[in-house]
Amino acid sequence: MSSYSNFFNTSIGRKVLMSLTGLFLCLFLIVHLAGNLQLFKSDMGLAFNQYSVFMTTFTPIKVISYLLYITIIIHSINGWVLTRRNQAARNIAYSAPKDTRSATWSSRNMGILGLILLIFLVTHMANFWYQYKFGSTPWVEYQVDLNTGHVLSAAPYNALEGVSMVPHDFVTADASGTPVKVVVIKDLYAVVKAAFGQAWLVALYLIGMVALSYHLIHGFQSSFQSLGLRHKLYTPVIRGAGLWIFGIIIPVLFAAMPAYFFFFNNH
């Protein structure tokens, strides 16, 4: 055990740990994005609310969530240690000018980008995760046409205190005799909509996604490099995925969510 702890306390070991935790977080981003894209569905938030319940009540997902929290903490602390060590190494002597032409802006500022992302993440968790789990998230009652699957209505529902987070539903009929499924569920969609009606929070999210873009453009491809996974055949693919998928597509889609609510769905 001591040999492993000694290894992960070296610069190489910490870079390996940074790479492994970073790649796990990249995988999480893909899954999280897929779920959050439910916000764009024209169903008054039903699909997103159902996704939110699944992510917080399904046991395997809950276990992975705790692993995710631990990973974020390890990644953040390890990044801070590496940044401090790099700063100390750069401050040893300035007599010989260092050629930084081969280093990208993002690679030289990973510490700052990481700090911005940490502030963003704490704000995000406070506004949504904490609010959903422990706050006063409202409930909503949906009526869904069983024949077409279309959401007919969404109205506030007064849930009893201490009610389970798990939604409950039943089948009934409307005034015309059409079979209708009634779904009563926690309305995180309403919380998201209200939050993204605030200009300062939208601005913070957009800044956070710019920081995420630069962080991932460098971090994704450097993770493979730190793990020794470099080859002339697949290194260009890794760099391309780092740039286009993690550096552009994922941050842009995440940024589109607050922008969508603030400019087009805030009424």
Keywords:
267 residues; alpha+beta; 4-stranded antiparallel beta sheet; 9 helices; 64% helix; elongated
Produce a short descriptive summary.
The protein is built from nine helices and four strands, in the order H-H-H-H-H-H-E-E-E-E-H-H-H.
Write up what this structure looks like.
64% of the residues lie in helices and 10% in strands. The protein contains 9 helices and 4 strands. Strands 2-1-4-3 form a 4-stranded antiparallel β-sheet, with helices on one face. The N and C termini lie far apart (57 Å).
Please report the number of helical segments: 9
Largest sheet: 4 strands, antiparallel
Task: Label the structural class.
Answer: alpha+beta
Oligomer state equals single chain
**Which percent bin holds the helix content?**
55-70%
Give a count of the beta strands, DSSP E runs of length 2 or more. Answer: 4
Into which percentage range does the β-strand content fall?
Answer: 5-15%
Low-confidence stretches: none
Strand order of the largest sheet: 2-1-4-3
Task: Give a topology summary.
Elements: H1 2-7, H2 11-36, H3 46-57, H4 59-90, H5 105-108, H6 110-134, E1 139-145, E2 151-157, E3 168-173, E4 179-186, H7 188-195, H8 199-226, H9 235-263
Antiparallel strand pairs: 1-2, 1-4, 3-4
Helix pairs in contact: 2-4, 2-8, 2-9, 4-6, 6-7, 6-8, 8-9
